[in-house]
Specification:
269 residues, Alpha-Beta Plaits, eight-stranded antiparallel barrel, 12 helices, 42% helix
Amino acid sequence: MERRAFLTSSLAASALAVTAPAERLKGAQETREGKGRDFYQLRCYHLSNGPQSKLCHDFFRDALVPALNRLGVTPVGVFNLTIGPETPSIYVLMPSLSAETLVNVESRLSQDTEYLKAGAAFLNAPAAAPAFARMESSLLQAFEKMPRLNLPPATAANGARVFELRTYESPSDQDHKRKIEMMESGEQEIFAKAGFSQIFYGDTLIGSRLPNLTYMLGYESVSERDKKWAAFRDSPQWKALSSQPRYAFESIVSNITNVILTPTAYSQI
């Protein structure tokens, strides 16, 4: 299927689907108010074409997301990879103020009888017909200047939305720290002025291809994304910031990974 056609159908499905009620989303946001910085576990499930997609979505919707909520991990985002390598893939974002909760999430889930019952088909899938091909996971800590995950307005309103997940790799730890400093010293404000929905910014503590940072932006559509990025690139503030000697004397970002995600009907983000 062509990417454009796939994206159009995915967005239409997202717009028509019934997501979590606004009251639950509001409650989830309220439970996350307070001091401290978020930690995020970001998973990517790589699938094979066929029955794995339904098996995974049934499991995430009926078992994993409710069980995570019972552990205080909320709101949980579940997204289909719409534009990017290695499709089909499903991304799951788990935010928590407790790194310990995220690190030990599997052992805690294994003690949840409701989760084990609801997720039996996925959890007990045989080797001849596995639930997924491979799963990658990383642990991130929120930036100091944006310590908590922000839900975009379209989530509570059950509106059409897409998300952009961007990962910036740096050639050294020093350059990595400098890029975080650059983002917190003006880049986030430029995003805000250009009208981006900024969902989260995370410094990757455990994962592949370190050092790197990952952040998520939200839009009503891909066409809106293109307009906002054009405004960002043309911003005098961005041109001034990116030309400062501290950030321009060498390439502080060596590789950028960029994917477009569409939330599932049951995603809480």
